[in-house]
Amino acid sequence: MASEEGVVIGCHTVDQWNEQLEKHKGSQKLVVVDFTASWCGPCRVIAPILADFAKKMPHVTFLKVDVDEVEKVAQDYKVEAMPTFLFIKDGEIVDKVVGAKKDELHACIVKHAGAAAATVSA
After folding, report:
1. What is the pLDDT, as a whole number, of residue 57?
2. What is the number of alpha carbons within 13 Å of residue 89 lying toward its C-beta?
3. Catalytic hit among 40, 73, 100, 105
4. Domain boundaries of the chain, sorted by first residue
């Protein structure tokens, strides 16, 4: 598998989702999950911004889950609006942002990822 730093990793199956979650359990690395949908306008607007964050913050893992493709995961996390961003550390949800709110998203990443993310501007 290629290096996963600096990219948004798509989880297209429940197995891929579980594999990513398992990989980060026990680590203090922040995982930012973008619950998205192909038909969602705000999702398409925020996607390149998220990709830019991923490039600038290799110490944070960025995942993308299409709610129509992996419906079970979206239901498990009670995602009702797109985009919804969940912030997970050591398998626990530590924060949530609903909507394509670039500044709020950036602030949450900085808050949970630590000082290294603070040097990246929104």
Report:
1. 92
2. 14
3. 40
4. 8-115
**Class in CATH terms, 8-115:** alpha beta
Residue 108 among the catalytic residues: no
* Phi, psi angles (nearest 5°) of residue 27: -105, 155
* pTM, two decimal places: 0.90
Kindly give the parts of the chain with pLDDT less than 50: 1-3
Our answer to whether residue 11 is catalytic in this structure is no
Residue 10: predicted pLDDT = 96
Dihedral angle at the C-alpha atoms of 69, 73, 76, 77, nearest 10 degrees?
A: -100
Neighbours of 91 (CB within 10 A): 12
> Mapping DSSP to helix (H, G, I), strand (E, B) and coil, where does residue 107 land?
helix
Catalytic residue among 30, 33, 37, 43: 43
| Rounded-to-integer distance, Cα 48 and Cα 108, Å | 18
